[in-house]
Amino acid sequence: MINRRSLLASASLLATPAIVQAQTAWPGDKPLEVFVPFPAGGGVDIMTRLVMPLVAAQIPGLRPVVINRTGAAGQIGLEATFNAAPDGYSIGATTIPAHNAIPLERQVRYRAMDFTFLCNIVEDANCFYVRADSPFKTLQDLVAAAKARPEQITYATTGIGSDDHLFVLHFEELAGLKPMIQVPFAGAAPLIPQLLGGNMDVAAINVNDALQLAREGKVRMLAQAAVRRQPEAADVPTFRELGFDLVHGASRGIVGPPNMPPAIVARLEAAFRTALADENFKREAARNFMPLNTMVGAEYRAFAQTVDDRLKRLWQVRPWRG
């Protein structure tokens, strides 16, 4: 896990004196609120806190303030972003496919495709983590246990309808398993201590959520749902290598409320393009286990629409529940 001190140190490396000294208003004299729908210390929070100083450096007077609005698997924070005034004072982080999945299963105060899609930053594959002393040494061990003890194996996720939850549903279908028991959390940060405490059999999270703990020998990854092995976990097989045609992950980015003025959107998009191309940012992203996949503006929205269409088809065939 990345502790708060190292995160703040990373952010300070990316900041420049111009951020503090700037006097020009953007687009007024209030700070830009950046809503993060998950707790501090998780992957989405780390990403946001690393990138925003560089974005601010591109726009004189932009003063970002990261605010964690947690709850309901990201719903609370997404609603805060969606319902904010589109005046350049509020944007928010998000993670797809949860962004699109949540409105399919319950009433929410946002419409998934009506946000202003600014940029995607990270794409992190799903995986299964277990404690180092777990009897599950391989993915095959997990499958065997789930078949021997149907509907008894417990798995943690970052929430109902999250990428982790949908990943497990797909895996259960491919492996011919009866549903395992989900234990949802409000993000990876509160989930990890419970995994270390042995309070669930397995955690369905993203590769980089517990990579440092794996390197310290405290947890073990069974398999990763990437197209190919992520460089950060080159010794861990993919699901495809193990006979399961499963590719799944979280795409984490930044969105704004609907109907943001085109001029403001254009300035933010340009700032994000420059920030994400910065070599210092790329080094800090690698150091913080953030696999980058940059999509800005229309490209990001087209990607989100593809996911939205796919999830709606899935919901008609196999609606997910908690």
Summary keywords:
20% strand, 2 domains, 322 residues, alpha/beta, 40% helix, globular, D-Maltodextrin-Binding Protein, domain 2
Task: Tell me what the structure shows.
With 322 residues, the protein is an alpha/beta fold. It is built from 12 helices and 10 strands. Strand 5, helix 7 (163-175) and strand 6 (181-184) form a beta-alpha-beta unit. The longest helix has 20 residues, at 298-317.
List the helices and strands and how they pair.
Layout (H helix, E strand, L loop, with lengths): L3 H11 L2 H5 L10 E5 L6 H16 L5 E5 L6 H8 L7 E7 L1 H8 L10 E16 L7 H10 L5 E4 L5 H13 L5 E4 L3 H9 L5 E5 L4 H5 L3 E6 L24 E8 L5 H16 L1 H9 L4 E5 L1 H20 L5
Parallel strand pairs: 1-2, 1-3, 5-6, 5-7
Antiparallel strand pairs: 3-9, 4-7, 4-8, 4-9, 4-10
Helix pairs in contact: 1-3, 3-10
Q: Supply the number of helical segments.
A: 12
- Helix/strand-derived class? alpha/beta
Q: Tell me what portion of residues adopts beta-strand conformation.
A: 15-25%
Shape: globular
Mean pLDDT: 90
**CATH fold assignment of the largest domain:** D-Maltodextrin-Binding Protein, domain 2
Give the tally of structural domains: 2
Radius of gyration: 19 Å
Q: Return the CATH class of the largest domain.
A: Alpha Beta
Largest sheet geometry:
10 strands, mixed
Low-confidence region ranges: 15-23
